[in-house]
Write a structure and sequence with these properties.
By secondary structure, the chain is an all-alpha fold. Strands 1-2 form a two-stranded antiparallel ribbon.
Length: 461
């Protein structure tokens, strides 16, 4: 792979690919409920509130998983905690597949959430810590690509299961097969983790400089003196941090405090875009627009494919156009789509033509999200904090993101029931406008800078 005349090793690409596969778990579990929800609701006689809680079990568990992940990863390393996340995800799939009650379903979803929270915190941080600065955004974007691939694959699995069997079979067995299939990526991720190295920055922080140096040299084809300079820069940064204040005081320093504010707000805004409301309930939305059950499933698969394609575009542009520009214009594009969707849902009746327009606008909203806030938020969280507190500070921002995910997932069916589709999409559209203004006012560009340079810039503010 070449970038601005520089060559990077296959070892780096393979390592990033394996680490990013953790995002596949996230994507699969986000998407599996969109297919299963049509069958588990009637089977367990769930109200809209209970259905929202079952759907929200993953983000609620992830909230706590993020808080645990940051502290653990700074103590025992990124790799071990990612392995734990794979185990939790696998057992979650098994528990959901065998669930005979709503309670067991909720417990299994919460366990899976713990694993997803851990992996969503650590994978972007891990990739940011091993990737060269000029392609760091692209590499961290690989995590979002894995999420999109997970969503697409599970949408495809859901559609195949739902459309090749009877309603009675799907209510009895089909939805369980959807969860069972999720154990495969969980086991695969656990096994693959053993093939990648520990984060060099974590190793240097633990006085294992020789190991870190060897890993960095395998990651890059840069001249030896360039790698040595990077190691010295990391050493100097870590030594400075060791002489600094406690975690709380360090976090509340001027530069870190602003970084935390921006990271937390971006985490909240990512979910206020309405993307996961659409993701979890896509088939339901399409059915409201007039599509039949089978057609709704097929349209949802198409949404998954769109995610994959536009995350790939995001990866190619994030380091060239920069974080700030892509987030700002992505916000306004999503707002436009949501306002138009609201106008179409206000029509009575919704004709087949309007159904097509709604599908097109949801596709455009999804594409705009994946080109901006989808991967951009994870990139920002992974690169804004100092080495000493990166794991724990990133876990705070990630936990806020998952708490926002839980709130949106829990409230979406209630909003639809109480406010209707029109006002629900108007509200999400207004939030997108606010997001664009926030980026314009508060976000400073980080593209092309090393993690240590970003840290220095924040401290100078």
């Amino acid at each position: 792979m070449k970038n601005k005349g520089k060559s990077y090793t296959k070892y780096l690409l393979v390592t990033v690919l394996i680490a990013a596969f953790g995002g596949f778990l996230f994507g699969y579990d986000q998407g599996v409920m969109s297919g299963a929800i049509n069958y588990i609701g009637p089977v367990f006689h769930m109200s809209s509130g209970v259905l929202g809680f079952v759907s929200g079990g993953i983000p609620l568990g992830a909230f706590f998983g993020c808080l645990i992940a940051g502290w653990l990863s700074d103590k025992i390393g990124r790799k071990i905690v990612m392995s734990i996340s794979a185990i939790l995800f696998t057992f979650s799939g098994l528990g959901c597949a065998l669930a005979g009650s709503v309670s067991l379903m909720i417990i299994s979803r919460l366990i899976g959430g713990l694993g997803i929270g851990m992996v969503s915190t650590l994978v972007p941080v891990y990739i940011a810590e091993i990737a060269p600065k000029d392609i760091r955004g692209k590499m961290v974007g690989g995590y979002q690509l894995a999420i999109a691939c997970g969503i697409f694959i599970v949408y495809l699995v859901n559609a195949i299961i739902a459309n090749t069997h009877s309603l009675a079979w799907n209510e009895d067995v089909g939805w369980r097969m959807m969860f069972f299939a999720g154990m495969v990526p969980g086991i695969l991720f656990f096994l693959l983790i053993f093939a990648i190295p520990e984060s060099p920055r974590f190793l240097i922080n633990k006085n294992k400089s020789d190991q870190a140096s060897a890993i960095l040299r395998r990651m890059s084809n840069e001249p030896t003196e360039k790698v040595d300079e990077e190691i010295k820069e990391i050493h100097a940064s870590i030594q400075s941090e060791k002489n600094s204040k406690s975690f709380t005081k360090e976090l509340l320093k001027k530069g870190s405090k602003m970084a935390l504010f921006v990271a937390v707000m971006c985490s909240i805004f990512q979910q206020l875009s309405g993307i996961n409301a659409i993701g979890y309930y896509a088939p339901t939305i399409f059915k409201q627009a007039g599509a039949g059950s089978n057609a709704a499933m097929i349209e949802t698969v198409f949404i998954g494919l769109v995610k994959v394609l536009f995350v790939a575009f995001f990866m190619g542009l994030i380091d060239k156009l920069g974080r700030r520009r892509m987030l700002k214009w992505g916000s306004y594009a999503m707002a436009t789509c949501l306002f138009l969707i609201a106008i179409l849902f206000a029509q009575n009746p919704i004709t087949k033509l309007f159904d097509i327009f709604i599908v097109v606008l949801i596709v455009l909203h999804t594409a705009s999200f994946e080109m901006s806030w989808g991967g951009g938020t994870w990139v920002l969280i992974s690169e804004m904090f100092p080495n000493k507190i990166r794991g724990r500070a990133s876990s705070i921002a990630s936990s806020v993101l998952w708490l926002a995910t839980y709130v949106v997932t829990q409230l979406y069916p209630v909003m639809i029931a109480k406010l209707g589709s029109v006002w629900t999409f108007v509200i999400f559209g207004l939030f997108c406008v606010i997001m664009g203004v926030f980026v314009q006012v508060f976000l400073k560009e980080t593209a092309g800078k090393s993690l240590e340079q970003i840290q220095q810039d924040n401290a100078a503010k």
